[in-house]
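#dry-run=false #mode=assembly
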Amino acid sequence: MVEDREISQAVIGRLPRYFRYLGELKDQGIERVSSQELSDIMRVTASQIRQDLNNFGGFGQQGYGYKVESLYDEIGRILGLDKEHNLIIVGAGHLGQALVNYMNFERRGFIFRGIFDIDERIQGTQIRGITVRPMEEMEEFVRGNDIDIAVLTIPKTGALEVAERLVACGIRGFWNFAHVDLHVPDNIQVENVHLSDSLMKLSYNILSHID
Amino acid sequence: MVEDREISQAVIGRLPRYFRYLGELKDQGIERVSSQELSDIMRVTASQIRQDLNNFGGFGQQGYGYKVESLYDEIGRILGLDKEHNLIIVGAGHLGQALVNYMNFERRGFIFRGIFDIDERIQGTQIRGITVRPMEEMEEFVRGNDIDIAVLTIPKTGALEVAERLVACGIRGFWNFAHVDLHVPDNIQVENVHLSDSLMKLSYNILSHID
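#status=ok
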């Protein structure tokens, strides 16, 4: 078994996609797949696939291919999907509600435990059975419920202060939808989903393919 | 003026972030910024900034810095934000509703013109003044309303077929939230937002920083 920390961020970034395709093959009852077959369905080169998957040792064999289920399980383990993460979401607007209502995260071990919002009118209401709480209760909730991930679906104006408060009470990672870069200590992980940035890139690519 | 098409995808991917920071400086009434100052607030190296921004010629001068507003406008132009894009959204669930309700896209010229959903119970209802239409009307609507971008917020099972129908009626780009890779002709642009992938990467990074 290779140590997780030797795997590059570039490979890590590609793992969820392998995980998705292997999951589909597994659901179809397929037991083995060659790098060439994977290459055909994933539309990346077979050599890239071999290089990436070699990081996990032992699963590929010349002329035999990869064992789908073992490789799927191993990638899931590397990604930490065999463990539970406890999440809070800060910001119960449309996007926050959409994320809480998306069941697939829960299937993967990402469990929404608490929802917080600054708006008194929605405090006390429930989203998928989870009560929306006032911001003042956030720290105590995080400490008392072993919360490791905070999802920020608030406007950028409040995000930096909220992030600071969460760092102070021991949060380990942010899934950040606020349109601002969080500045947190190096041991805190941030994964940004900047929707506008993605839409702007699409706009560029469409325009540069028109002429 | 440098031709847009000479700029690498890596640089393009970073442009929205420059655009965001320059917009903030502009809002603060700042007229000039040096690469070193930008480096400090954006936390990337000054040489990376100089290299990236040199793609747009003429805006930086030794000992003078960049003209904030000109550079902001120029990057906006490169990204196509001086033009309007007409969007439809397919899938009026929580995520679709969240995107339609997010006003900032409209401020940037991305205008939601139509919403489509397979669920008869919500057809005819409105989201921010836009009527939810049946899927059967999609092609005619796209052709008749100069729609260039389709936002897919539907489960992966239906996404490939919907994408194929949209390609056939002339869509130019997909903003794809469905958890599947679209296979479309090379002249059609796809920007994926795979939320689960992003969450899995966060999970990995948290676990690999625990020991």
